[in-house]
Specification:
Order of helices and strands: HHHHHHHHHH
Largest sheet: none
Radius of gyration: 20 Å
Amino acid sequence: LLVLGVVFVNGWTDAPNAIATVISTRAMSPRLAIIMAASFDFLGVLVMTLLNATVAQTIYKMVDFGGDTHDALVALCAALFAIVLWATSAWWFGIPTSESHALIAAITGAAIALQGGLGGVNPSEWVKVIYGLALSVLMSFPLGFFIVKGIEKICRKMNRKKTNTVFQYAQIVGGAGMAFMHGAQDGQKFMGVFLLGMFLVNGQANVTQFPNPPLWLIILISVVISSGSSIGGYRIIKAVGMNMVKLE
Protein backbone atom coordinates (compact mmCIF):
# COMPACT_ATOMS: atom_id res chain seq x y z
CA LEU A 1 0.00 0.00 0.00
CA LEU A 2 2.83 2.39 0.82
CA VAL A 3 4.62 1.72 -2.47
CA LEU A 4 1.40 2.24 -4.42
CA GLY A 5 0.73 5.39 -2.37
CA VAL A 6 4.13 6.75 -3.39
CA VAL A 7 3.49 5.81 -7.03
CA PHE A 8 0.11 7.57 -6.92
CA VAL A 9 1.63 10.71 -5.39
CA ASN A 10 4.39 10.58 -8.00
CA GLY A 11 1.84 10.68 -10.81
CA TRP A 12 -0.06 13.40 -9.00
CA THR A 13 2.91 15.73 -8.31
CA ASP A 14 5.56 14.83 -10.92
CA ALA A 15 3.52 14.33 -14.08
CA PRO A 16 2.10 17.91 -14.09
CA ASN A 17 5.60 19.15 -14.98
CA ALA A 18 5.27 17.40 -18.36
CA ILE A 19 2.08 19.24 -19.32
CA ALA A 20 2.74 22.62 -17.67
CA THR A 21 3.82 24.17 -20.98
CA VAL A 22 0.90 22.98 -23.13
CA ILE A 23 -1.58 24.29 -20.56
CA SER A 24 0.10 27.64 -19.85
CA THR A 25 0.40 28.40 -23.59
CA ARG A 26 -3.18 27.19 -24.21
CA ALA A 27 -2.03 24.62 -26.75
CA MET A 28 -4.41 22.24 -24.94
CA SER A 29 -7.19 22.60 -22.42
CA PRO A 30 -6.26 21.43 -18.88
CA ARG A 31 -8.71 18.51 -19.07
CA LEU A 32 -7.33 17.17 -22.36
CA ALA A 33 -3.73 17.71 -21.25
CA ILE A 34 -4.33 15.72 -18.05
CA ILE A 35 -5.96 12.87 -20.01
CA MET A 36 -2.97 12.89 -22.38
CA ALA A 37 -0.48 12.83 -19.48
CA ALA A 38 -2.28 9.94 -17.79
CA SER A 39 -2.44 7.94 -21.03
CA PHE A 40 1.21 8.42 -21.95
CA ASP A 41 2.38 7.83 -18.38
CA PHE A 42 0.62 4.45 -18.54
CA LEU A 43 2.20 3.62 -21.91
CA GLY A 44 5.64 4.74 -20.76
CA VAL A 45 5.67 2.40 -17.78
CA LEU A 46 4.23 -0.52 -19.73
CA VAL A 47 6.22 -0.31 -22.97
CA MET A 48 9.64 0.69 -21.66
CA THR A 49 9.66 -1.79 -18.76
CA LEU A 50 8.83 -4.63 -21.15
CA LEU A 51 11.75 -3.53 -23.34
CA ASN A 52 14.33 -2.83 -20.63
CA ALA A 53 14.11 -2.92 -16.81
CA THR A 54 17.59 -1.48 -16.14
CA VAL A 55 16.34 1.51 -14.11
CA ALA A 56 14.47 -0.79 -11.72
CA GLN A 57 17.64 -2.85 -11.26
CA THR A 58 19.72 0.24 -10.43
CA ILE A 59 17.29 1.33 -7.69
CA TYR A 60 17.19 -2.19 -6.27
CA LYS A 61 20.99 -2.43 -6.05
CA MET A 62 21.69 1.10 -4.73
CA VAL A 63 21.29 0.30 -1.04
CA ASP A 64 21.64 -2.66 1.32
CA PHE A 65 18.55 -3.69 3.25
CA GLY A 66 20.18 -6.98 4.33
CA GLY A 67 20.15 -8.38 7.84
CA ASP A 68 17.03 -8.76 9.94
CA THR A 69 14.10 -8.71 7.51
CA HIS A 70 11.64 -7.27 10.04
CA ASP A 71 13.90 -4.29 10.81
CA ALA A 72 14.59 -3.85 7.08
CA LEU A 73 10.87 -3.81 6.30
CA VAL A 74 10.25 -1.18 9.00
CA ALA A 75 13.07 0.95 7.53
CA LEU A 76 11.63 0.62 4.02
CA CYS A 77 8.15 1.61 5.24
CA ALA A 78 9.63 4.66 6.99
CA ALA A 79 11.34 5.70 3.75
CA LEU A 80 8.11 5.40 1.76
CA PHE A 81 6.12 7.32 4.36
CA ALA A 82 8.73 10.10 4.24
CA ILE A 83 8.32 10.38 0.45
CA VAL A 84 4.53 10.70 0.68
CA LEU A 85 4.87 13.34 3.42
CA TRP A 86 7.42 15.38 1.46
CA ALA A 87 5.61 15.12 -1.89
CA THR A 88 2.28 16.18 -0.38
CA SER A 89 3.91 19.13 1.39
CA ALA A 90 5.65 20.23 -1.82
CA TRP A 91 2.37 20.00 -3.75
CA TRP A 92 0.58 22.10 -1.12
CA PHE A 93 3.10 24.91 -1.52
CA GLY A 94 3.26 24.51 -5.32
CA ILE A 95 6.92 23.44 -5.26
CA PRO A 96 7.98 21.49 -8.38
CA THR A 97 9.78 18.46 -7.00
CA SER A 98 11.23 15.18 -8.21
CA GLU A 99 9.89 12.09 -6.47
CA SER A 100 12.79 10.20 -8.05
CA HIS A 101 15.29 12.10 -5.96
CA ALA A 102 12.98 11.93 -2.94
CA LEU A 103 12.84 8.13 -3.36
CA ILE A 104 16.61 7.82 -3.67
CA ALA A 105 17.24 10.07 -0.67
CA ALA A 106 14.64 8.33 1.50
CA ILE A 107 15.77 4.75 0.87
CA THR A 108 19.42 5.83 1.26
CA GLY A 109 18.68 7.46 4.62
CA ALA A 110 16.73 4.41 5.72
CA ALA A 111 19.53 2.03 4.66
CA ILE A 112 22.17 4.10 6.49
CA ALA A 113 20.02 4.10 9.64
CA LEU A 114 19.40 0.34 9.31
CA GLN A 115 23.06 -0.59 8.76
CA GLY A 116 24.45 2.00 11.19
CA GLY A 117 26.60 3.80 8.64
CA LEU A 118 27.53 4.27 4.99
CA GLY A 119 28.00 0.53 4.61
CA GLY A 120 24.34 0.48 3.64
CA VAL A 121 25.07 2.35 0.39
CA ASN A 122 26.46 0.88 -2.84
CA PRO A 123 28.59 3.75 -4.28
CA SER A 124 28.99 2.22 -7.77
CA GLU A 125 25.20 2.28 -8.28
CA TRP A 126 24.52 5.46 -6.31
CA VAL A 127 26.93 7.50 -8.44
CA LYS A 128 24.63 6.95 -11.44
CA VAL A 129 22.13 9.25 -9.73
CA ILE A 130 24.77 11.99 -9.49
CA TYR A 131 25.55 11.54 -13.19
CA GLY A 132 21.87 11.87 -14.06
CA LEU A 133 21.34 14.92 -11.85
CA ALA A 134 24.43 16.75 -13.09
CA LEU A 135 24.03 15.90 -16.77
CA SER A 136 20.32 16.79 -16.83
CA VAL A 137 21.20 20.33 -15.72
CA LEU A 138 24.41 20.74 -17.73
CA MET A 139 22.92 19.39 -20.98
CA SER A 140 19.33 20.64 -20.80
CA PHE A 141 20.12 24.33 -20.28
CA PRO A 142 22.44 24.81 -23.31
CA LEU A 143 20.30 22.48 -25.47
CA GLY A 144 17.18 24.49 -24.65
CA PHE A 145 19.01 27.75 -25.33
CA PHE A 146 20.60 26.80 -28.65
CA ILE A 147 17.56 24.96 -30.04
CA VAL A 148 15.39 28.04 -29.43
CA LYS A 149 17.98 30.31 -31.04
CA GLY A 150 18.12 27.96 -34.03
CA ILE A 151 14.33 27.94 -34.40
CA GLU A 152 14.22 31.74 -34.18
CA LYS A 153 16.80 31.97 -36.96
CA ILE A 154 14.97 29.47 -39.20
CA CYS A 155 11.58 31.13 -38.70
CA ARG A 156 12.66 34.80 -38.69
CA LYS A 157 11.06 35.55 -42.07
CA MET A 158 7.91 33.49 -41.54
CA ASN A 159 4.47 34.83 -40.73
CA ARG A 160 3.94 34.43 -37.00
CA LYS A 161 0.26 33.51 -37.27
CA LYS A 162 0.97 30.80 -39.82
CA THR A 163 3.57 29.17 -37.58
CA ASN A 164 1.33 29.14 -34.50
CA THR A 165 -0.54 25.99 -35.54
CA VAL A 166 2.70 24.11 -36.25
CA PHE A 167 4.16 24.97 -32.86
CA GLN A 168 0.89 24.27 -31.08
CA TYR A 169 0.97 20.67 -32.33
CA ALA A 170 4.72 20.47 -31.67
CA GLN A 171 4.07 21.41 -28.04
CA ILE A 172 1.45 18.68 -27.74
CA VAL A 173 3.91 16.12 -29.13
CA GLY A 174 6.57 17.40 -26.72
CA GLY A 175 4.21 17.17 -23.74
CA ALA A 176 3.18 13.63 -24.71
CA GLY A 177 6.85 12.64 -25.03
CA MET A 178 7.63 14.10 -21.60
CA ALA A 179 4.71 12.19 -20.03
CA PHE A 180 5.79 8.96 -21.76
CA MET A 181 9.37 9.20 -20.52
CA HIS A 182 8.20 10.22 -17.04
CA GLY A 183 6.32 6.93 -16.84
CA ALA A 184 9.24 5.01 -18.36
CA GLN A 185 11.70 6.32 -15.77
CA ASP A 186 9.66 6.74 -12.61
CA GLY A 187 7.48 3.66 -12.98
CA GLN A 188 10.54 1.43 -13.06
CA LYS A 189 12.07 3.02 -9.98
CA PHE A 190 9.09 2.03 -7.87
CA MET A 191 9.05 -1.49 -9.29
CA GLY A 192 12.53 -1.97 -7.82
CA VAL A 193 11.28 -0.85 -4.40
CA PHE A 194 8.13 -3.00 -4.70
CA LEU A 195 10.21 -6.11 -5.40
CA LEU A 196 12.56 -5.26 -2.51
CA GLY A 197 9.54 -5.10 -0.19
CA MET A 198 8.24 -8.44 -1.53
CA PHE A 199 11.57 -10.14 -0.82
CA LEU A 200 11.70 -8.72 2.73
CA VAL A 201 8.14 -9.86 3.47
CA ASN A 202 9.14 -13.38 2.36
CA GLY A 203 12.19 -13.34 4.66
CA GLN A 204 14.70 -12.88 1.81
CA ALA A 205 17.10 -10.12 2.82
CA ASN A 206 20.07 -10.84 0.56
CA VAL A 207 18.67 -11.50 -2.92
CA THR A 208 21.43 -10.68 -5.41
CA GLN A 209 19.79 -11.72 -8.68
CA PHE A 210 17.23 -9.13 -9.78
CA PRO A 211 14.30 -10.75 -11.61
CA ASN A 212 12.45 -9.08 -14.46
CA PRO A 213 9.33 -7.38 -13.06
CA PRO A 214 6.28 -9.61 -13.61
CA LEU A 215 3.61 -8.42 -16.03
CA TRP A 216 1.00 -7.98 -13.27
CA LEU A 217 3.34 -5.58 -11.43
CA ILE A 218 4.07 -3.58 -14.60
CA ILE A 219 0.34 -3.18 -15.27
CA LEU A 220 -0.40 -2.34 -11.61
CA ILE A 221 2.24 0.41 -11.47
CA SER A 222 1.09 1.70 -14.88
CA VAL A 223 -2.51 2.02 -13.71
CA VAL A 224 -1.65 3.66 -10.38
CA ILE A 225 0.81 6.22 -11.79
CA SER A 226 -1.62 7.20 -14.56
CA SER A 227 -4.43 7.47 -11.98
CA GLY A 228 -2.27 9.90 -10.00
CA SER A 229 -1.56 11.85 -13.17
CA SER A 230 -5.29 12.18 -13.85
CA ILE A 231 -5.76 14.34 -10.72
CA GLY A 232 -3.86 17.19 -12.32
CA GLY A 233 -1.61 19.01 -9.87
CA TYR A 234 -2.72 22.52 -10.87
CA ARG A 235 -0.53 24.21 -8.25
CA ILE A 236 2.59 22.72 -9.84
CA ILE A 237 1.40 23.47 -13.38
CA LYS A 238 0.95 27.10 -12.37
CA ALA A 239 4.38 27.26 -10.71
CA VAL A 240 6.26 25.70 -13.65
CA GLY A 241 4.29 26.99 -16.63
CA MET A 242 3.29 30.47 -15.44
CA ASN A 243 5.30 31.67 -12.43
CA MET A 244 8.84 30.46 -13.14
CA VAL A 245 9.06 31.45 -16.82
CA LYS A 246 7.00 33.50 -19.28
CA LEU A 247 5.68 31.38 -22.13
CA GLU A 248 3.61 32.27 -25.18
